[in-house]
Amino acid sequence: MTAVHGYWAAPFQYAAELSHTLAQKVHARSVMQTSESREKVYEILKDFSTAMFVTVGPGGRPEARPMHVAKVEESGNICFFTGKRGTVASEVWHEAEVLLAFQNEKSSYLSLRGMARVVEDRARITELWKEPYRVWFPGGPEDPDIALVMVDPIDAEYWDNRGTNRLQYLFEAAKAYVKGERPEVSELEQHGKTTL
After folding, report:
1. Would 130 be classed as within a structural domain?
2. Residues 61-111 pLDDT 10s
3. Fewer beta carbons within 10 Å, N or C terminal of the chain?
4. Rg (CA), the chain
5. Taken in order 146, 152, 157, 161, is the CA torsion positive or negative?
6. Which domain holds residue 114?
7. In the chain, how many domains are there?
Protein backbone atom coordinates (compact mmCIF):
# COMPACT_ATOMS: atom_id res chain seq x y z
CA MET A 1 0.00 0.00 0.00
CA THR A 2 2.82 2.38 0.82
CA ALA A 3 4.51 1.72 -2.53
CA VAL A 4 1.27 2.34 -4.41
CA HIS A 5 0.61 5.47 -2.36
CA GLY A 6 4.16 6.67 -3.10
CA TYR A 7 3.77 5.84 -6.79
CA TRP A 8 0.59 7.89 -7.05
CA ALA A 9 1.89 10.67 -4.85
CA ALA A 10 4.75 11.58 -7.23
CA PRO A 11 2.53 12.85 -10.10
CA PHE A 12 0.40 14.85 -7.64
CA GLN A 13 3.52 16.32 -6.01
CA TYR A 14 4.92 17.22 -9.44
CA ALA A 15 1.58 18.83 -10.44
CA ALA A 16 1.48 20.80 -7.18
CA GLU A 17 5.06 22.05 -7.70
CA LEU A 18 4.34 22.94 -11.33
CA SER A 19 1.17 24.75 -10.33
CA HIS A 20 3.06 26.69 -7.63
CA THR A 21 5.84 27.63 -10.10
CA LEU A 22 3.30 28.81 -12.68
CA ALA A 23 1.45 30.81 -10.04
CA GLN A 24 4.73 32.51 -9.04
CA LYS A 25 5.49 33.38 -12.68
CA VAL A 26 1.98 34.74 -13.26
CA HIS A 27 2.22 36.80 -10.05
CA ALA A 28 5.68 38.15 -11.03
CA ARG A 29 4.37 39.09 -14.50
CA SER A 30 1.30 40.73 -12.95
CA VAL A 31 3.46 42.75 -10.54
CA MET A 32 5.72 43.79 -13.43
CA GLN A 33 2.72 44.78 -15.57
CA THR A 34 1.21 46.69 -12.65
CA SER A 35 4.49 48.51 -12.09
CA GLU A 36 4.80 49.31 -15.82
CA SER A 37 1.16 50.39 -15.92
CA ARG A 38 1.66 52.70 -12.92
CA GLU A 39 4.69 54.28 -14.57
CA LYS A 40 2.69 54.69 -17.77
CA VAL A 41 -0.19 56.38 -15.90
CA TYR A 42 2.14 58.90 -14.23
CA GLU A 43 3.99 59.51 -17.51
CA ILE A 44 0.69 60.29 -19.26
CA LEU A 45 -0.66 62.26 -16.29
CA LYS A 46 2.20 64.78 -16.45
CA ASP A 47 1.08 65.80 -19.97
CA PHE A 48 -2.31 67.09 -18.80
CA SER A 49 -3.07 70.55 -17.47
CA THR A 50 -6.84 70.19 -17.04
CA ALA A 51 -9.13 67.46 -15.79
CA MET A 52 -12.86 66.92 -15.75
CA PHE A 53 -13.29 66.64 -11.99
CA VAL A 54 -16.32 64.44 -11.24
CA THR A 55 -17.87 64.42 -7.76
CA VAL A 56 -21.04 62.93 -6.33
CA GLY A 57 -23.63 65.66 -6.02
CA PRO A 58 -27.01 65.88 -4.33
CA GLY A 59 -29.08 62.73 -4.65
CA GLY A 60 -26.02 60.73 -5.78
CA ARG A 61 -25.93 62.44 -9.16
CA PRO A 62 -22.47 62.80 -10.80
CA GLU A 63 -21.38 66.43 -11.17
CA ALA A 64 -18.48 67.35 -13.49
CA ARG A 65 -16.49 70.48 -14.14
CA PRO A 66 -13.11 71.26 -15.75
CA MET A 67 -10.37 72.10 -13.26
CA HIS A 68 -6.75 73.11 -13.77
CA VAL A 69 -4.16 70.71 -12.36
CA ALA A 70 -2.00 72.73 -9.97
CA LYS A 71 0.54 69.92 -9.50
CA VAL A 72 1.11 66.19 -9.79
CA GLU A 73 3.24 65.36 -6.76
CA GLU A 74 5.99 62.75 -6.62
CA SER A 75 3.74 60.75 -4.29
CA GLY A 76 1.15 60.60 -7.09
CA ASN A 77 -1.32 62.97 -5.43
CA ILE A 78 -2.94 65.48 -7.77
CA CYS A 79 -3.52 69.02 -6.49
CA PHE A 80 -6.24 71.47 -7.54
CA PHE A 81 -7.31 74.89 -6.24
CA THR A 82 -10.91 75.33 -5.10
CA GLY A 83 -13.07 77.65 -3.04
CA LYS A 84 -13.74 76.57 0.57
CA ARG A 85 -17.43 77.43 0.21
CA GLY A 86 -17.76 76.13 -3.36
CA THR A 87 -19.57 73.12 -4.77
CA VAL A 88 -16.42 71.00 -5.18
CA ALA A 89 -15.40 71.39 -1.53
CA SER A 90 -18.94 70.71 -0.33
CA GLU A 91 -19.31 67.58 -2.46
CA VAL A 92 -15.86 66.26 -1.48
CA TRP A 93 -16.72 66.72 2.21
CA HIS A 94 -19.87 64.64 1.71
CA GLU A 95 -18.35 61.97 -0.59
CA ALA A 96 -14.57 61.76 -0.94
CA GLU A 97 -14.45 59.33 -3.88
CA VAL A 98 -14.00 61.24 -7.15
CA LEU A 99 -13.25 60.54 -10.80
CA LEU A 100 -10.81 62.55 -12.90
CA ALA A 101 -11.06 62.33 -16.69
CA PHE A 102 -8.26 63.66 -18.89
CA GLN A 103 -8.06 64.03 -22.68
CA ASN A 104 -5.20 65.29 -24.81
CA GLU A 105 -5.99 66.19 -28.43
CA LYS A 106 -7.00 62.71 -29.68
CA SER A 107 -3.72 61.16 -28.54
CA SER A 108 -4.04 60.15 -24.89
CA TYR A 109 -6.85 59.62 -22.45
CA LEU A 110 -6.83 58.85 -18.74
CA SER A 111 -9.59 57.99 -16.30
CA LEU A 112 -8.45 58.09 -12.68
CA ARG A 113 -10.47 57.23 -9.55
CA GLY A 114 -9.28 58.52 -6.20
CA MET A 115 -10.07 59.82 -2.73
CA ALA A 116 -10.19 63.60 -2.41
CA ARG A 117 -9.76 65.84 0.58
CA VAL A 118 -9.92 69.60 1.08
CA VAL A 119 -6.68 71.01 2.48
CA GLU A 120 -6.30 74.50 3.95
CA ASP A 121 -2.49 74.60 4.13
CA ARG A 122 -1.45 78.22 3.50
CA ALA A 123 2.21 77.27 2.84
CA ARG A 124 1.21 74.71 0.17
CA ILE A 125 -1.23 77.18 -1.37
CA THR A 126 1.54 79.79 -1.63
CA GLU A 127 3.96 77.20 -3.04
CA LEU A 128 1.52 76.13 -5.79
CA TRP A 129 0.12 79.60 -6.52
CA LYS A 130 0.25 80.94 -10.11
CA GLU A 131 -0.91 84.41 -11.07
CA PRO A 132 -3.66 83.21 -13.49
CA TYR A 133 -5.50 81.76 -10.44
CA ARG A 134 -6.24 85.36 -9.39
CA VAL A 135 -9.21 85.31 -11.80
CA TRP A 136 -10.93 82.91 -9.39
CA PHE A 137 -9.25 84.09 -6.18
CA PRO A 138 -8.86 87.91 -6.37
CA GLY A 139 -7.17 87.98 -2.96
CA GLY A 140 -4.26 85.93 -4.30
CA PRO A 141 -2.78 83.12 -2.21
CA GLU A 142 -4.05 84.90 0.91
CA ASP A 143 -7.66 84.88 -0.35
CA PRO A 144 -9.79 83.73 2.61
CA ASP A 145 -11.85 81.40 0.37
CA ILE A 146 -8.95 79.51 -1.24
CA ALA A 147 -8.18 75.86 -0.49
CA LEU A 148 -6.58 72.88 -2.18
CA VAL A 149 -8.26 69.66 -3.19
CA MET A 150 -5.78 66.79 -3.04
CA VAL A 151 -6.69 63.58 -4.87
CA ASP A 152 -4.98 60.37 -3.79
CA PRO A 153 -5.33 57.98 -6.77
CA ILE A 154 -6.80 54.50 -6.26
CA ASP A 155 -6.85 53.14 -9.79
CA ALA A 156 -6.70 54.27 -13.40
CA GLU A 157 -7.33 53.27 -16.98
CA TYR A 158 -5.47 54.80 -19.91
CA TRP A 159 -5.41 54.88 -23.70
CA ASP A 160 -2.15 56.19 -25.14
CA ASN A 161 -1.79 56.96 -28.84
CA ARG A 162 1.10 59.43 -28.55
CA GLY A 163 4.25 59.22 -30.68
CA THR A 164 5.03 55.75 -32.02
CA ASN A 165 1.90 54.41 -30.31
CA ARG A 166 -0.08 56.76 -32.56
CA LEU A 167 1.64 55.47 -35.69
CA GLN A 168 1.10 51.89 -34.54
CA TYR A 169 -2.57 52.58 -33.87
CA LEU A 170 -3.10 54.31 -37.22
CA PHE A 171 -1.47 51.35 -38.99
CA GLU A 172 -3.63 48.85 -37.06
CA ALA A 173 -6.76 50.94 -37.71
CA ALA A 174 -6.06 51.14 -41.46
CA LYS A 175 -5.33 47.41 -41.63
CA ALA A 176 -8.52 46.62 -39.71
CA TYR A 177 -10.57 48.90 -41.96
CA VAL A 178 -9.30 47.19 -45.12
CA LYS A 179 -9.93 43.72 -43.65
CA GLY A 180 -13.30 44.68 -42.13
CA GLU A 181 -12.05 43.80 -38.63
CA ARG A 182 -11.38 45.60 -35.36
CA PRO A 183 -7.88 47.02 -34.76
CA GLU A 184 -5.53 45.24 -32.37
CA VAL A 185 -4.53 47.44 -29.45
CA SER A 186 -1.24 46.76 -27.68
CA GLU A 187 -1.88 46.11 -24.00
CA LEU A 188 0.26 48.16 -21.61
CA GLU A 189 1.71 50.31 -24.39
CA GLN A 190 -1.60 51.66 -25.67
CA HIS A 191 -4.20 50.59 -23.13
CA GLY A 192 -4.13 49.42 -19.56
CA LYS A 193 -5.83 49.34 -16.17
CA THR A 194 -3.96 49.45 -12.89
CA THR A 195 -4.30 50.05 -9.20
CA LEU A 196 -2.25 52.95 -7.89
Report:
1. yes
2. 999 999 999 999 988 899 999 999 999 999 999 999 999 999 987 678 999
3. N
4. 24
5. positive
6. 50-195
7. 1
